[in-house]
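ok new one. same drill as before - structure tokens go in, u give me an amino acid for every spot. 210 of them this time. try not to just spam alanines like last time pls lmao
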């Protein structure tokens, strides 16, 4: 595809990959995504988000309307199909997402960076609640892996990755929670002021204060 590759999108990639199989309408696409477990990878809880993704792909020339199927007892359904450009972009997005790191700014990391904005006890309580949720998600992931004993590993790699990531984060969280509980990690206003005084760079103009 000549020209610049459009900005990638996780949901857009999944949509394009579904349409590589066959043309389909949004309702069938949502059901396939859910049946394949891809709703654990991208957010399709609201069909509106799916329609928005399809509309964007249409504006980019990556999908197009194949036909509109009239319904007698339901609204008409629009069937979409992928374009040749869409096939090329889907593969390039896939390559980029596999090889790239960074460029994402999760809320949790931002919150951790100013954990001292709460008291140690308050911070520990919030992290403990997160740990409970992560433990539940890890249990769901383990169950998902065990639920398909005959399915080739290739189609369970996302769950393997999820298990590894959840397990690593949960282990880290529990260590931080223990350190907060035992007082090995703590702070107060006086200590924060001392650290700020010692490590905050002096005020100055952008050109060095000249």
């Amino acid at each position: 595809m000549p020209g610049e590759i459009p900005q990638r999108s996780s949901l857009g990639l999944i949509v394009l990959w579904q349409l590589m199989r066959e043309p389909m309408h949004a309702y069938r696409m949502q059901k396939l995504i859910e049946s394949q477990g891809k709703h654990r990878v991208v957010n399709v809880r609201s069909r509106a988000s799916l329609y928005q993704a399809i509309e964007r792909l249409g504006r980019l020339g990556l999908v197009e309307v194949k036909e509109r199927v009239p319904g007698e007892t339901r609204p008409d359904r629009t069937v979409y199909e992928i374009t040749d450009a869409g096939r090329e972009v889907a593969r390039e997005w896939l390559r980029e997402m596999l090889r790239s790191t960074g460029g994402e700014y999760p809320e949790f990391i931002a919150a951790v960076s100013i954990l001292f904005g709460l008291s140690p006890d308050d911070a520990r309580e919030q992290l403990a609640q997160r740990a409970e949720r992560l433990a539940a998600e890890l249990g769901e992931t383990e169950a998902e892996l065990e639920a398909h004993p005959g399915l080739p590993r290739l189609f369970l790699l996302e769950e393997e990755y999820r298990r590894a990531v959840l397990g690593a984060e949960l282990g880290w969280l529990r260590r931080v929670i223990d350190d907060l509980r035992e007082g090995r990690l703590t702070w107060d206003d006086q200590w924060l002021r001392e650290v700020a005084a010692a490590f905050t760079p002096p005020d100055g103009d952008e050109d060095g204060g000249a």
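The chain has a mean pLDDT of 90. and btw The radius of gyration is 24 Å.
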